Amino acid sequence: MKPWIIGNWKQNPKTFTEAQSLIHQLMHKASEHQLANCQMMVIPSSIHLAKVADIINAQSRAANAASEHSENNVISNPILVGAQDISALSQHSGAYTGDCSAAQIKDSGADWVLIGHSERRQYYQEGDTPLQKKLQNALSEHLGVIFCVGETEAEHDAGDTLKVIQEQLTVLQSVLTSSTQTSLVGDLDLSNSGQNLAERLIIAYEPVWAIGTGKVPTVEEVAQTHLAIKEWMRGFNSVFVDPIVIYGGSVNADNAVQFAQAQGVDGALIGGASLQAESFLAIADAFTAHS
Ligand code: PGA
Q1: Catalytic residues
Q2: What is the pTM for the complete model shown?
Q3: 251 CB less than 6 Å from ligand 1?
């Protein structure tokens, strides 16, 4: 599997001009790196989402058109685009001030959405009920989902990491378990789109205490947690043969290699270090070298 290198821009940058510059730098410098061997994604703020998607999609079309006329006919590996949040209230449209629906995200040119990030859980008190609805809305609209889980420092120190994550994953379990999916997700037919579903669901393990702090768990801890998540996912539904599980929390150009080498780590979700093209690409390089 190609490693997933995903940049969560959060509420950054301050202006669209800066966002545009970042995406242009990424696309320009990408040609100097072996990015065909990894899958990159950027997750801009909702106000920049459609414009960033437009830039990337226009560039991909141009690159593919050019490759059709060239001898080596290399099809470009586009940078994917995701949204940072999604409405729990409606899959399509409605009187929900401030929300963006799954259909609107899709229409903006993005194909993925982040759900359950610890900052949403902490600052907006997002619990299991809205998370479950967000998941249903995203999957029903065929958006890919990056579902975040992770323990607090107190939970980590108490040795409760796996217990906490298993609890957080029950939201996914309830949506994915075949016996309950009909009533929960209506038109989400796992039997028909199962294989496809396994490719568009990523679990991001992000210890809350590691996000933006410079503190990171040991490689052994990360590997143990990732392997446990994979095992649980397989138990949820047989479509998950090798579930995609990525690590997030203070990943940077200097420590990326240690995560890239850890067992069961299929990529990284990167906040701060994704705001500079050079550091984001250096992380991508570390993962592609060890994939
Ligand atoms: P960080 O953020 O890389 O700045 O720690 C990661 C995240 O919150 O996804």
Answers
A1: 117, 206
A2: 0.93
A3: yes
